[in-house]
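Summary for the lay section of the report: proteins are chains of building blocks that fold into shapes. Here we show the chain for Trm112p-domain-containing protein and then a coded description of the shape we predicted for it.
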Amino acid sequence: MHLITHNLLARNAKGCTTNSFPLAFRDAHGQVEIQEQDINPDFVCNVLPRLEWKALIDAACQVGDESLPAEQPNMTDDELVQKLHYVLMEIHITEGAMVCSNCEHICPISNSIPNSKPDPKDSMEYFSTLPVAHLADMTDGNGHVMYGANSVAKKRARVD
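The coded shape description reads as follows.
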């Protein structure tokens, strides 16, 4: 799981309505792979204003990276774009867990996939993502969506 995905996840469960974002990593520090990817500076610059900066910094620190500044910068330079790309797209959590800071529900990460399966005691629990509006303008310049959640929303809209 990439940190860009983590920055979009919140726990949305019955009775767990406050402080469910961000989810904290547990036992993930030693289960991190670096997966090199081609950098897309336009994508990084488009995603920057949509990030929950403090959550990103906390998550990066939890998995052992302290390369980003504590305060969200107003401007981007090549060095910041490189660092953001690395943190968002190349750090990959393969095993561990995420914990809700409100209800302390544990969501395991196995084979890079977070398990959002609800507790059997409450069948109404589920994960949600932040509004798709956060992803609306993340295109590659040719109008192609760069991140899957928006693509899924568009496919659903066509089906309905």
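Put simply, here is one thing we learned. The first helix runs from residue 3 to 6.
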